[in-house]
Amino acid sequence: INIGKNAVVCKDIEIRGEIQIGTILHPQCKILALKGPIIFGQNNIVEENVTITNNFDYRKRKYVEGTKIGNRNIIEAKARILGNTSLGDNCVIGAVCSTKKDEVIPDNTVIFGDHNNRRTQTASANQQSSLHTRHLDYLREVLPKFNHVASDSQEAVTHSTHSTHSRKVKQTASH
């Protein structure tokens, strides 16, 4: 596990396999690299109860699956990216929304609504970047105040419930 310098990883994160994290992971996320590495770009926001795996189990419903997550994306609570879908940069996957299996999501795509509607963001790149940066700064300040976080990969420990390659973020005092 490689946790980047500006990443914020809350407690109760289940992590298995080869993972590079340069992002913010809210509590209750699972990152399961069972069929190869999962590489996150920089400055992504992954909200509560999202599972990212490259070994999808169709019996469960809260999965995001893929091996490449670009930069500055927001994956909202309970979103699903199916198959070996690759997510570009500056995308938003809305709460409880999903992609089709094994697709390439272009940069600036927003998936929203009951029917997984899609549109391309029309806000200027500078405006979008400014809002996203403020959101990241806010989360980097607030999440450690109300959650235990791991500041680097040294704080990840072996978690033997699932396998010998499984890791769970260690609870560390932040108060």
TrEMBL record:
* UniProt keyword annotation of Cytoplasm present: yes
Q: Which InterPro entries match?
A: DCTN6, Hexapep, Trimer_LpxA-like_sf
Q: Where is this region: Disordered?
A: 150-175
Keywords for this entry? Cytoplasm, Cytoskeleton
Feature: compositional bias, Basic residues: 162-175
Name any one GO molecular function: dynein complex binding
**Which is a Pfam family this sequence falls into?**
Hexapep
| Gene Ontology biological process terms, A to Z | mitotic spindle organization
Q: Where is the composition biased (Polar residues)?
A: 150-161
- Localization of this protein: Cytoplasm, Cytoskeleton
Which Gene Ontology terms of cellular component type are present?
Answer: dynactin complex
Q: What is its main location?
A: cytoplasm
Q: Looking at the record's lineage, which domain of life comes first?
A: Eukaryota
Q: What does this protein do?
A: Part of the dynactin complex that activates the molecular motor dynein for ultra-processive transport along microtubules.
The entry sums up its family as follows: Belongs to the dynactin subunits 5/6 family. Dynactin subunit 6 subfamily.
This chain's protein is named Dynactin subunit 6
Query: From which organism does this entry originate?
Result: Rhizophagus irregularis
